[in-house]
Amino acid sequence: KMMLALFVVLALTGSSFAQTCCSVEDSNEVHRMWSGVWSAEFTGRRIKVAQSIFIDLFGSHPDAVALFSRVKGDNVDSPEFRAHCVRVVNGLDTCINLLTDPATLNQHLSHLSGQHAKRDGVRAAHFDAIATSFKNVMPQISNCFNPDAWGHCFGRIADAISSGLP
Amino acid sequence: PPPRPSSCGTLQRLKVKQQWAQAFGQGTSRETFGTALWRNLFNRAPDARDLFKNVDGDNVFSNKFQAHIQRVLGGLDMSISLLDDEGTLNAELAHLRMQHAERGIADENWEVFKDALLDVVPDELGSCFDYDAWNCCFTVIAVGIRGR
User: Fold this and answer.
1) Which sequence ranges are marked TM in the entry (chain A) (predicted)?
2) A118 contacts in chain B (CB < 8 Å)
3) Which of chain A's residues have a Cβ under 8 Å away from the Cβ of B84?
């Protein structure tokens, strides 16, 4: 009976994991969507995409602007903030391209987690907010956007970075 | 023969961007590319490994160093992709300059990095590789990060 109960528990956690993890199929989908958006050949595209995400974030969370005062978050068109936008989204690009190598991805995510822990005022909830901004912006630029695959893999990345945050 | 570019002009910048996108690739090919770059670099300058002790520089195949490789390539990718947006490029190079300032990287090591890069990028591009354009445009980036 004990064994049966354990089996049921394992089966349940197994199925809930399958719904939310970033599977190989999910990561293939994310690669497909992302590579159409973020190629080095198209600088203008990169900056517009990265800026749009932060504009969406600041629109719904005006209090977040202050977190980026060091990079002129109050002026989204300044070179400093444009470069910042590209850095953040380029960080995501690195993570997406490491989805096929989880051991290296984990090392990189722990590095990013350390970088964010050093920034006063950054909370785990902010990552939910920026996840929403990506979900708002991506369908507008990505060809045939797949929100489930995107959500699973973005969650895998964002959860690891924000795990140590308040 | 076409003229050899002696500066990183508008057309050279566009070409380097295009060739970089092809060489850098996506997914696991980035790891293959990055590993070749760093093996090449450490063969040229074995002592440079000491600069990377905190990211397991003695073993380029370790996950820690592989993650480091992808961060460096990410910075290079950003710089190259911004070559045709001078204002944002300069803001990004200033940021990278800050990150490298206290690391004590000798001038010759920047040259070694350039030589290694210009040695491995053609592996992906074959004879289409534009050495002169890369030589000039990488120098723009390196000078921006070094500040001299």
Assistant:
1) none
2) none
3) 43
